[in-house]
Design a protein that fits this description.
A hairpin with a 4-residue loop joins strand 5 and strand 6. Helix 1 packs across helix 2. The chain folds into two domains: 118 residues, Jelly Rolls, CATH 2.60.120; 84 residues. It is of the alpha+beta class. The termini are far apart.
């Protein structure tokens, strides 16, 4: 079975909605991969073109192979999950057609909402009996928290990269000094060896 990958590089400053549609060839697999932080809500809605005698399955999993959502023989539906840790997650769609059956490609539509866009604020407002202004303030508060978390993550990554650069520079410096010492030692040994050799051959005094 052929495998196709589509990689999404999500913005650090905004967790939005990514809708995509593609044609899934018979007996192939197509996956969408993305790196996500911990405690991020992901909501997906899919729509698969129905073709008699053909079947499409989907699975959502992380880089360790843990299955977060899975369903067989799909047409329309939704899925949601919350990430446990920073990891790479993928949503894969599989086409399965019997070999004796004439097959055609199927159109697949997937709408992914990540972060605050995946939250159902209408439901939250109804449950908490919030006014429209209060609900909008709640949404802005969540957006502000997401931006602050992204800045914190960027600062942490910058510190990690700086520490890695400093460590690499120190290692390169020590390696250069060690190489120079080895070259000087080898040159000195060669001079002393040749001096003894020429003296033994009475070429020099």
């Amino acid at each position: 079975m052929e495998v196709y990958y589509l990689v999404f590089f999500l913005s650090l400053f905004w967790h939005g909605s990514d809708g995509i549609m593609w044609s899934l060839a018979p007996n192939t697999q197509k996956c969408l991969k993305s790196e996500l932080q911990a405690n991020v809500l992901v909501a997906g809605e899919y729509d698969v073109q129905e073709v008699p005698g053909q079947r499409v399955d989907y699975i959502v999993r992380d880089s360790k192979g843990h299955i977060l959502s899975q369903r067989e023989s799909i047409t329309k539906g939704k899925f949601t999950f919350v990430t446990d840790s920073y990891d790479t997650f993928e949503v894969c769609f599989f086409s399965k057609v019997p070999p004796e059956r004439r097959s055609v490609s199927q159109d697949v539509t997937l709408d992914l909402k990540i972060g605050i866009e995946a939250k159902n604020y209408e439901g939250i407002g109804e449950a908490a009996k919030l006014k429209p202004v209060e609900l909008e303030l709640k949404r802005l508060e969540d957006l502000s928290e997401a931006i602050v978390q992204d800045f914190t993550l960027m600062r942490k990554r910058e510190e990690e990269m700086r520490d890695t650069n400093e460590s690499t520079n120190n290692r390169v410096l020590f390696f250069s000094l060690f190489s120079m010492v080895c070259l000087l030692g080898l040159a000195t040994w060669q001079v002393l060896y040749l001096r003894r050799y020429f003296k033994a051959k009475k070429l020099i005094e």
